[in-house]
Design brief:
Number of helices of chain A: 7
Number of strands of chain A: 1
Low-confidence stretches of chain A: 19-39
CATH class of chain B: Alpha Beta
Radius of gyration of chain B: 16 Å
Order of helices and strands of chain B: HHHEEHEEHEHHEE
Radius of gyration of chain A: 19 Å
Shape of chain A: elongated
CATH topology of chain B: Rossmann fold
Number of helices of chain B: 7
Strand content of chain B: 25-35%
Order of helices and strands of chain A: HHHHHHHE
Strand content of chain A: under 5%
Largest interface: A-B, 37 and 37 residues
Oligomer: heterodimer
Number of strands of chain B: 7
Structural class of chain B: alpha/beta
Low-confidence stretches of chain B: none
Largest sheet of chain B: 7 strands, mixed
Mean pLDDT of chain A: 78
Number of domains of chain B: 1
């Protein structure tokens, strides 16, 4: 299952790099984007998931670095970091879901923002890290989470087998 | 105010920004919808048509009825219906209490519908009633993910999202079966959350 995901993700990356300019809606000024994008929209918009998840986690880490003081208890830092992550995600979600639909933004974005908030909240209370360190940690968490979700998506994507009673096999 | 009136009021308010808010879904998943809706045949009913955003995704020359329970949505959908190259009537109606006679449709189409219907099983039972014995239902729906953690995430988010939009944790496949239908095809579009269903009576 995981190999199917890895293979599909590599295929997506290689195809995306060679994607025809007319298929990238963001550069298109045509009114009927459905016609332009039909067939490969879900495919070529996957990069938006990476960008939004990276931003959700990265911005959360930066905000946590700026707002949570180092003398607070670790547990408070983690919980507050998680809550800040939800607020950051909400803002990013509203912007990016208009571009590429809500599901690919929300599903990886929520755990990424929560984890980045918790980890950076803990980091800040354990030892004062630099803003750059926090941003790098957040960005890595975001990229990693988006990649995991894409692999998971590839493993599930497609036909669901049904047995004779119409129940999922 | 009754529960159904609350729902109608919520979607009346949502009508103003509906096209804008759903532009991402249409852009990303429009191809999947178009491929599914191409299987429509005979007399067709589109349930919860909203502002008619999905009308261009249907093949031309169908005989269609589009319903929605929100007067604001219906008003906007009527404007888009005029552009459809076929017969398309937009009617204000609640899927939970349809006024159509038994076995009057060959195809019923839903598009992110049963995340919003207050009593989804009742709505599906009504569709079962108005669908012909050899009829089909074509559905593009988002459902509660099967994964424990992701499902719990959707349970947490639903009370927030449902204030102004749909519920994120509906067990739609189970609801389809509870209404007496048989799922003949199920396709995962995104994770096991966004799905296409082809359903027989």
């Amino acid at each position: 299952m995981i190999w199917k995901g890895c293979y599909s993700e590599l295929l997506w990356v290689s195809t995306s790099l060679r994607v025809d300019r007319k298929d990238i809606f963001i550069f298109s000024r045509q009114a009927d984007t459905l016609t332009v994008m039909e067939g490969n929209a879900a495919w070529s918009l996957r990069w938006v998931d990476y960008v939004s998840t990276l931003l959700a986690a990265g911005v959360t880490a930066g905000v946590v670095r700026l707002l949570i003081p180092s003398h607070w208890p670790a547990l408070v830092g983690m919980i507050l970091g998680m809550l800040l992550g939800m607020v950051v995600l909400l803002i990013i979600f509203l912007g990016f879901s208009l571009l590429a639909g809500p599901f690919g933004i929300l599903m990886p974005g929520m755990p990424a923002a929560m984890i980045a908030g918790m980890v950076c909240g803990m980091m800040m209370t354990a030892q004062k890290a630099s803003l750059l360190d926090a941003l790098i940690v957040g960005a890595l968490i975001g990229l990693g989470t988006a990649a995991v979700f894409h692999l998971y998506d590839w493993s599930l994507h497609g036909e669901v087998s049904q047995d004779d009673t119409g129940r999922e096999a | 105010m009754t529960e159904i009136q609350d729902h109608i009021e919520k979607w009346n308010k949502a009508a103003r920004t509906f096209d804008w808010m759903n532009s991402g879904v249409e852009r990303r998943y429009g191809g999947y919808k178009r491929a599914l809706f191409a299987k429509s045949r005979g007399k067709v009913m589109l349930v919860a048509a909203g502002t008619g955003l999905d009308f261009p995704l249907f093949p031309p020359d169908l005989d269609m009825v589009a319903i929605d329970f929100s007067p604001e949505m219906v008003g906007r959908a009527k404007l888009k219906a005029a552009q459809y190259p076929g017969r398309l009537e937009v009617v204000e109606a609640d899927v939970q209490d349809l006024k159509f006679s038994d076995e009057s449709f060959d195809t019923v189409v839903t598009s992110c519908t049963f995340c919003s219907v207050p009593d989804p099983v009742q709505g599906l039972k009504e569709i079962h009633r108005v669908l012909k014995p050899d009829g089909q239902m074509l559905m593009f729906e988002h459902v509660r993910p099967g994964n424990f953690l992701l499902g719990a995430m959707m349970d947490v988010m639903t009370p927030i999202f449902s204030k102004a939009g749909p519920e994120l944790n509906r067990p739609t496949a189970d609801n389809i079966r509870r209404a007496g239908f048989r799922i003949t095809r199920e396709f995962n579009v995104y994770l096991d959350m966004v799905k296409l269903f082809e359903v027989a009576k």
